[in-house]
Structures are given as structure tokens and as C-alpha cells.
Design brief:
8 helices; OB fold (Dihydrolipoamide Acetyltransferase, E2P); rod-shaped
């Protein structure tokens, strides 16, 4: 019996008659399985995964940066803060006189013209005095007649008293027998009538003398004189013009006392009059000299008001020096009154006092999901909240927001004056150049 013999597997190469080295050379190196860490596809896939991860991380970071709040800041500044009041008005002489005539007549001469300098007592205009001279002559004649009547009355009184004295003497010597009582009474009456006539004559003299003085005064007023030292501003009188005296005299000349000192009268609005007081300084401009600013001082704030188109204003006078005479009466001026001024105070923009940061959701802070970013948001969810547009009242407590890193941190301050753009602030933690937040903006997702 024959026992089977176990056969060992023969190498493949021996079946073909080739060795492994010969087979590798025949098929190529790529046909032989290599380790995974030496495979090119593995490293290419890994590089692609890293690039995708970096891209996703960059995109998420960019989205977070876009949705994160961005704050606009301005520094706290130290300087002078002034509250000003603006008002319009016109320049006027400090003392202006309108010259007219109390008499009716015809202008004979005019001795001055516009811009002429005049002195007190100087004759400016002369009226025709022919009629006035005749009236004065008549009055003087009446006075002379009245004075003669007085002399005649005095003589009559003396005569009647002499007669009465003689009758009384006869009555004394005769023991009262003669003259009769009727004759004595007649004598007394005659003296009384003569005395009354004398009194009337003397009254007529006084009346005639007054008429003479009146005519002399009228004759003097026919020469119109300057009551002040000044300058002629306007002239409407011409030789030959007739002047008719009435209840309101016609203005023939207008004089200004001293143009080196003018008065600027402005109209202050009722909302600002509480800040305007006597003695405050101001500056004003006129259209003739737009680049120049003249100083002025408030001399009077009127209690009485004027109403124009339902707008209540208060006339306010400002004293103006005009030594170079560049300013002229009647010019329209715009005055800026320094109502209140603070020196070297800390100030912030009013927008900083109105600002309150908008609430930021945790999802937005962490980047959120793509779906949540694509969902519509409520209107105004990205808009910063405002505390109102009204200016802070002086002495009130308000809140500022400052940046610490990227976070908005509140800071409580006390407000002072405000000019509508900047407000005085004080409090712990404040310093010049400190950045305060004035607005907030977020990029659209």
C-alpha cells in the first residue's frame, strides 16, 4: 500500500519559471501594494480637509465680525463752553432829534445839508419873517396904547379923589350941613369907577405886553436853531417850501448827537430773554463789513414786549463804539450775545449723552447658525437705542458709554451747560481724550 506524500505549495514564480524580483521588474513598482502613509491620495485628501476646515473657520469668523457691534467714539475735550443768543436789529444814534417848525410860513433859507456838523444854537433854517414882523409892530402899538390908557385912568382917579377930598373937607367945616349925603356918595362912586378903569387899563397893558413877547418869540422861532451838537442825517427842507404848523410838526431835518457812539437795538426772542442781562458782552456783524466783528455791551433789556406775526420779542439795547465812523445809523446788524461762558471744562458731544448700546444676542456673539442668519429679523433690531433727543438739563445725572477693550461700559456723569452741540460734564473717571461712544453700527448679515 502506497502512502500519499504531502506536497508543499510551489512558489508562483517557480510555476512560471520567474523569481519575485523578476516579477516586480516585469509588472512595475505601482502594481505592488504600498503602505498607507506612502499613498499620495491619502495626503491629497488630508490637505483638502484642512483647507475646507480653514475656510469654514474663516467664514464663521468673518460672519461673527460682521454681526458684532461696531462703536463710533469721540474723545472728551477740555476747553471753553459759551452759550450764545443770536438776535437781529438796527443801528441807531444814541440821541436823535427831529427838527420841525412850530410856525406856518415859507422857508427862506436853509443853512445846512446832509452830513454837515452843527453846534447847539446854530441857525439851521430861516422862515420868511415879513408877516411876523408886522404882527410884532402891531402888538407893540397896542402895548403903547394900553400904557396911555393907564396914564389916563390914573389921572381920572387922581381927579375924582381930589373932588371927594374937597367934599369931605366942606362937610367937616359945615358940621355936616353941606354937601348933602347924596353928593358924598356920588364922590365915593366916582373914585371907585376911576380905580376900576385904572385896573382895566393896567390889565390891558399886561395883555399887550404878553402879545409883544409872543410875537417876539414867534419871530425868534422863525430862525430854527440846533438844540444839540451833532451831524445832519436827513434834510427835507428846501427854500420856498411852505410849512404848515399842525398838531404833528413836519420833520425838516434829522440830527444825530454823536456818531462815534451808536446804539444797537435788537429783538431777543422770548425763549432766550431769560439768559440775556445788562452788562453782558456781544459781537455783531453788518452786511457792509461781513468779515469784521464789532464788540458791544448790553445796556438795557426792556420789560415790555413786541409781537410781530405772533412772535414775542423783547427790545434790547447794546452800546457800540464807532470811533472810525465805519458804522452808520440804519444798518442792519446780527448780534451774538455771550449769555454764559465756562472756562477750561470737560465737554462731550450731545450724541454721547443720548447713546445707549443695542442689545446683542448670544447667538450673534457666537456666530450663530447659517439658518438663523438667513431668518428675517424684527425691524430696528440692529439700530442703537436712544435715550431721547432733548438736551440734558444742567445738574442732572446722565450716563455715558466708554470702550474697555471691545465692550461698552457705562459711566455716570453730571451735566452742566450745553450749547446744543457740546455739553459740560463732570464726575469720577472722566479725563480729557477719554473715548466715549456716540453711535453704534452693525454690518448686515
Amino acid at each position: 500500500m502506497t502512502t500519499p506524500t504531502a506536497l508543499s505549495p510551489a512558489p508562483v514564480a517557480s510555476a512560471t519559471g520567474n523569481s519575485p524580483a523578476e516579477l516586480t521588474a516585469l509588472l512595475g513598482a505601482d502594481a505592488v501594494a504600498a503602505p498607507w502613509w506612502r499613498r499620495r491620495t491619502v495626503w491629497i485628501g488630508a490637505a483638502l480637509l484642512v483647507a475646507v476646515g480653514a475656510g469654514v473657520t474663516w467664514w464663521q469668523g468673518r460672519q461673527v465680525a460682521q454681526t458684532a457691534p461696531r462703536y463710533v467714539t469721540e474723545p472728551v475735550v477740555r476747553g471753553n463752553l459759551a452759550i450764545t443768543v443770536t438776535a437781529n436789529g438796527t443801528l441807531q444814534p444814541t440821541h436823535q432829534v427831529s427838527i420841525g417848525s412850530e410856525l406856518s410860513g415859507t422857508i427862506k433859507r436853509v443853512h445846512v445839508d446832509v452830513n454837515d456838523t452843527v453846534h447847539a444854537g446854530q441857525v439851521l433854517i430861516e422862515l420868511d419873517t415879513s408877516k411876523l414882523g408886522d404882527q410884532l409892530t402891531r402888538s407893540r402899538a397896542t402895548l403903547a396904547s394900553a400904557q396911555s390908557a393907564v396914564q389916563q385912568a390914573e389921572a381920572t382917579v387922581a381927579e375924582q379923589r381930589s373932588n371927594l377930598d374937597r367934599l369931605e373937607e366942606v362937610a367937616r367945616l359945615s358940621g355936616g350941613k353941606v354937601p348933602s349925603k347924596a353928593e358924598l356918595d356920588t364922590g365915593h362912586a366916582s373914585v371907585a369907577r376911576a380905580s376900576a378903569t385904572l385896573a382895566m387899563a393896567r390889565a390891558s397893558v399886561a395883555d399887550a405886553r404878553a402879545a409883544v413877547r409872543l410875537d417876539e418869540t414867534n419871530l425868534a422861532k422863525a430862525s430854527i436853531r440846533s438844540p444839540i451838537d451833532g451831524v445832519v442825517l436827513t434834510r427835507t427842507a428846501e427854500p420856498g417850501n411852505a410849512v404848515a404848523a399842525s398838531l404833528q410838526a413836519v420833520t425838516l431835518l434829522t440830527l444825530a448827537e454823536d456818531l462815534r457812539h451808536l446804539n444797537l437795538q435788537v429783538k431777543v426772542d422770548e425763549a432766550d430773554v431769560g439768559m440775556v442781562k445788562t452788562g453782558q458782552s456781544a459781537r455783531f456783524t453788518v452786511s457792509a463789513w461781513p468779515a469784521r466783528r464789532w464788540p458791544a455791551t448790553i445796556s438795557r433789556v426792556a420789560f415790555g414786549s413786541t409781537i410781530t406775526d405772533n412772535v414775542v420779542t423783547y427790545p434790547t439795547d447794546l452800546q457800540v463804539a464807532n470811533d472810525d465812523l465805519d458804522l452808520r445809523p440804519g444798518m442792519t446788524a446780527t448780534a451774538t450775545i455771550a449769555a454764559t461762558e465756562r472756562q477750561g471744562v470737560l465737554m462731550v458731544p450731545n450724541a454721547a449723552l443720548r447713546f445707549t448700546p443695542a442689545a446683542t444676542s448670544s447667538a450673534a456673539a457666537s456666530g450663530g447658525s447659517l439658518v438663523s442668519r438667513l431668518m428675517p429679523r424684527p425691524p430696528g433690531s440692529n439700530a442703537p437705542k436712544r435715550a431721547g433727543n432733548s438736551a440734558a438739563r444742567e445738574g442732572s445725572q446722565r450716563q455715558l458709554w466708554i470702550l474697555q477693550g471691545q465692550q461698552a461700559v457705562p459711566l455716570t456723569v453730571t451735566t452742566g451747560l450745553s450749547n446744543g452741540r457740546m455739553t459740560e460734564v463732570s464726575g469720577a473717571g472722566l479725563s480729557a481724550d477719554l473715548a466715549v461712544i456716540v453711535s453704534q453700527a452693525s454690518a448686515a448679515p
